[in-house]
Amino acid sequence: MATWWIDYSAAKLSGATIAGAAVGPGSERASGAIRYLDAPGNLVTKHTDRTEYRSLLDAGLGLAMYFEVGKNDPMGGFARGQEYGRRALAGADYLGFPGVVFFCADRWFRTPGFPVITPAVWGAYLDGAVSILGRDRTGAYGFSDAIDAAAGHVDYFVQCGARSALRGFAHGWQDNNVQPTVGGITVDRVLIQRPIPFAPVGGAAVPRNDEEWTMQLPSGDHRSLSFDIPQGTNQIRVNCPIDFLTVHGIWQAGDGLPPGNEFDYRWSYEADFRIDRLRPWKIAVAGGATQGSIIYTYSPANPERMGSISFR
């Protein structure tokens, strides 16, 4: 049976709504979604947010993201790719999303009324994004001209346009002819012909269940990652089964915390704490805390990205 995902921008949908929607030509139900993200300060209707993202996770859906500002995104080349890569990374960190972000050429390279996108400019744009997110988290979206020109710059591809032109190396094909209605809005359906990893290279984000929810810690040096603290959580636990990571600081915040106590730093930069397979770390959740942030460094840089935060 074919695997179909959806993408959409007109509204936010619950995971249960998507999982229950028959979108394929054989009434196949949607098993994943590609949503839009951006830095937290830029979110509008088309972008996902933490509430929707958690709902999609809880429904067990496969997930990927688009980053798109407009039809001329690639025209800024490498510098624009870095700029938009930073915005995409901020959005991914805000959500706790560890997967692939597809950068878009949302038109043919030669489109009347628009400047010509050359393969060199498009490649430089993607290279700029890769320099921020890493190649294992960066993908390309576009028509066959963009997909062909993206090969060698990124490793993940979603192609739109005629199915007869679909490249065998593309991971997904966006059907531009049939647009199902899901949750009262028109959506695109995406045929998945190669798996899109939710957590690139190694590990996976584990949806929350009745006991625990786990969020992956991407590799990085003095990496900062913000997160929501699920309601009813009593404990935050940091794990690193491969190599080790150093926690530089962690804080909790929330409207219900006592005045003057909004930020609870467990360590300063002068008193770091090492976490490895034999020495996980845990801290009690402060009463009223709803958000947190952690600053950490992997040593050595860990390509497996196996560190995680769990909430219990």
UniProtKB/TrEMBL annotation:
Origin: domain of life: Bacteria
One Pfam family it belongs to: Rv2525c_GlyHyd-like
Rv2525c-like glycoside hydrolase-like domain segment(s): 31-174
InterPro entries documented for this protein: Rv2525c-like_Glyco_Hydro-like
Protein name: Rv2525c-like glycoside hydrolase-like domain-containing protein
